[in-house]
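Milestone M4 deliverable, item 7.
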Amino acid sequence: MGLRIHFVVDPQGWCCMGLIIFVWLYNTILIPKVILFPHYEEGHISAVAILCFYLCSLFCIASLVRASVADPGKLPENPKIPITEREFWELCNKCNMMRPKRSHHCSRCGHCVRRMDHHCPWINNCVGEDNHWLFLQLCFYTQILSSYTLILDFCHYYYFLPLKKDNWDVFVFRHELALLRISAFMGIIILGGISGLFYSQLIGIFT
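Output delivered:
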């Protein structure tokens, strides 16, 4: 079944998504420029490390876009209720529409969603029956990218051999320590938050 496009008009959600995209862009541009490419040129790492980083980054942003625009399970205005399932449907007291049980009304989106888990401002969308697996994918790839970024930040100062050539005329290299500390700080915050959310989701699914 193809994914239906779902777009939520919510300025708060746009701001949250914009912040996430900024963090993604920051690390996707900074880490290769400061760590991966210089160490590759001096033979400290292989091209596989660069390829893996860009693949993780691509999977992460692709899963973010898919989770944010996929229909979470929005109920149609006039749903067709099978006769055998009418006892499992109920009336929503907010939008006056019939909905199956375990559905919830999202006040931010303005409609009911089948098996709604929560409304996530970071993807500007609800997490429901049809896009829950996409949300889990996003959490998984975000954990991988954040972990990889933190490992590279650590290895740059404590494991890799010092770089022989630095271009001190470039702003990035003049402020390398501060920029990488910001990257590490963002990585720790995102990894901690996403890991807790991801594993709480898994526990909820299994139980």
